[in-house]
Amino acid sequence: MAISNAHAYALDRLADLIAKARHAGADAADAVLVDSTSLSVAWRMGALERLERSESGDIGLRVFIGKRQAIVSASVSARDQGTRVRDELVERAIAMARAVPEDPFCGLADPGELAVELVDLDTCDPLEPSAETLVNRVRDAEGAALAVAGVTNSEGAEAGWSRSGVAVAASNGFAHAYDGSGVSLSASVIAGNGETGLERDYDYDTAVYFSELRPAEAIGHLAGTRAVARLGARKVMTQAVPVIYDQRVSRGLLSHLTSAINGAAIARGTSWLKDRMGQAVFAPGITVVEDPHRVRGLRSRPCDGEGVTNRRANLIEDGILTTWLLDLRSARQLGLHSNGHAVRGTSSPPSPAPSNVYLEAGSVSPEELIAGIQNGFFVTELFGMGINGITGDYSRGAAGLWIENGKLSYPVSEVTVAGNLKDMFKALVPANDLTFRHGIDCPTVRIDGMTVGGR
Predict the structure, then answer these.
(1) What are phi and psi for residue 336, nearest 5 degrees?
(2) What does the alpha-carbon distance between residue 34 and residue 132 come to, in Å, rounded to a whole number?
(3) Which helix (DSSP H) or strand (DSSP E) does residue 154 occupy?
(4) How does residue 79 score in pLDDT terms, banded at 50, 70 and 90?
């Protein structure tokens, strides 16, 4: 990857900081520098509510003295960016490292673990949208939502854009700098009145490139349509039925999976999957893919936050759990090697996290998943986080549409969906409507045998 003048300057500053730390007594050190710019807009009922732009910078230093580590950080936008800040960081970090307890699992990557070739993943849009452009988008999104018959009020439309420059360097020879951008647009409106009741719903989109956002009118129209569809919601009787998770909420199931296979949770023994490596977790034929190198992916990265090589892999293959998400520390705790899942900021040590994850699409349409259901629940929104990470017990508030005789019948609200993730994953059947809109993506899925709690 070619290196820009800005990246070279940032890496030079970090190299100087690390050299100062080594001279002051650190056995090893690494450092992170982040410069960020963001623009946000909020619009409600035909008027601009908020227009904000911010710029910030932070620098973080981690030092090691034997098996002791300490991390310090400072703002480099509000303070002197020169020698004084770096000297203060070094002084504080060395003093802290000499005082903290030993951590037998801390430390930098061995040179042989470092990524050698870093591919360009096109994660930064060179276009910075103007404030006027974002204002026009939120105005159009809310206007399209309010134009839907039955929509009576608005919670507003919001848009945001951000760009960050990140540089990471370490005394083991690792040095990497990159830029990333992101843009989002959302609309949330209210349908109904005192007689029909009031219901709220929303739609949103996110992307790396501004040009790849869905049209504002489409986002607004869908938000309005969804809100109106929820009018007249009922509360059904408690019963065990098949549940369909709409594409908008199904990706939460993958988030529960990645939390359960996080190396830190496995090392602590606090995951319901801690003893399931190499065993069937999903039904045969189910594959969950992680691809950190997807071009323009919202969570793409050419290596992890510790410089370790990462690569595309199947987290679940033919229903079988194949790996944990490991950084250096959790891998050492488990007697394994890091597989490149470390992420980090300026003020905390690295920790494991997923990159781009998706459940492979199935062979049937969402309509076909619904068609065979006599009575069931199509979930379009979830509330609360009633997930027990140790047992896998699952219970969340939900709203959506009731299914009768294979068709969506009437809106439902004020209910819960409950089960256990062990059983839910084994019963999961994906539809064929996978789209890549987030860092974690999932098609519509069907799970039989769940409990819908109502009256």
Answers:
(1) -120, -175
(2) 27
(3) strand 151-170
(4) very low
How many CB atoms are closer than 10 A to CB 111? 10
d(CA 123, CA 125): 7
Assign 3-state DSSP to the chain and report helix, strand, coil percentages, each to 5: 25, 40, 35
- The CATH 3.30.2290.10 portion of the chain extends over 5-222
* Residue found under tokens 């227009």: 51
> What is the pTM assigned to this prediction?
0.94
Rounded Cα gap, residues 175 and 444, in angstroms = 41
**Whole-angstrom distance, CA of residue 92 vs CA of residue 437:** 42
- The sign one gets for the Cα dihedral 361, 366, 372, 378 is positive
| Contact between residue 77 and residue 36 where contact means Cβ atoms under 8 Å apart | no
Going from the C-alpha of 440 to that of each of 133, 245, 274, 278, 378, the distances in angstroms are: 28, 15, 22, 23, 21
Q: What is the CATH number of domain 5-222?
A: 3.30.2290.10
Query: Residue 206 — very low, low, confident or very high, per pLDDT cuts 50/70/90?
Result: very high
Per-residue pLDDT reduced to its tens digit, 345-381: 999 999 999 999 999 999 999 999 999 899 999 999 9
User: Which residues have CB under 8 Å from 198's CB, separation 6+?
Assistant: 152, 153, 190, 191, 192
Which residues is 437 bridged to in the sheet? none
Q: Does the structure show a pLDDT above 70 at 175?
A: yes
